């Protein structure tokens, strides 16, 4: 099943009844068993062409297993892709298929529903005490390194940018021309690493977290599963829900947790952070960096 969990019941039934099918229907069932991801992103004609049968053979095979037609048969395979059972290219093909069928209203509803659900599920598993403990470690540290690569690079840099308006010991890594492990070369127990990665986990982030652990750094980690290799190492771990119809993990809940964590850092800090933020923005106003109506 290509490493997926796509509709195991349907696939098991296809495999069990394969010998009872007509030769042409057997071609379709065999193709589905060997290429389950294709069902979720392909039209009936595309499946028929790939299986070298006529389109009505595909429809008859679906009805033989209790479905009204091919679209009904395809639905659980599409759901599996939407819920993360497929790789990035398969999700991209699925989105293109939605566009071709002009079902963008359904995609819109799925996107909104998933983003709201991600926020709810994420914060349902996080307590104020957890955030307070992580915020205290961050504020009391000598240096804070914030690591995210790929789609999470912007999340890490956004957190660093916001925090740097009041914190002087924070930096995003990897720095230009460097690597995360090089950036952590002289860090120790006085320092904190905030690391972000979700499936498929990035090797350089996992390696940096392992190095940070060896160097006794405090680890604040955000990932999408309690089994994540970085959460297993974390002193302060946060499981974030990142489900989406898109072909990349959603950043909605990650940004929400980071912004909430920063608010806790400010709450845990001393008055000097307020003075720094005020000085930072007053300087910008003085230099004309903020637009003002004439």
TrEMBL record:
Entry-linked Gene3D superfamilies: Glucose-6-phosphate isomerase like protein, domain 1 (3.40.50.10490), Winged helix-like DNA-binding domain superfamily/Winged helix DNA-binding domain (1.10.10.10)
GO biological process assignments: carbohydrate derivative metabolic process
Domain HTH rpiR-type: from-to ranges: 8-84
A single GO molecular function term of this UniProt record: DNA binding
Every SIS domain range: 134-272
Signal sequence range: none
UniProt entry keywords in alphabetical sequence: DNA-binding, Transcription, Transcription regulation
Highest taxon above the source species: Bacteria
Stored PANTHER family: GLUCOKINASE, RPIR-FAMILY TRANSCRIPTIONAL REGULATOR
Protein name per Swiss-Prot or TrEMBL: Als operon repressor
Naturally occurring in which organism (per UniProt): Thalassovita mediterranea
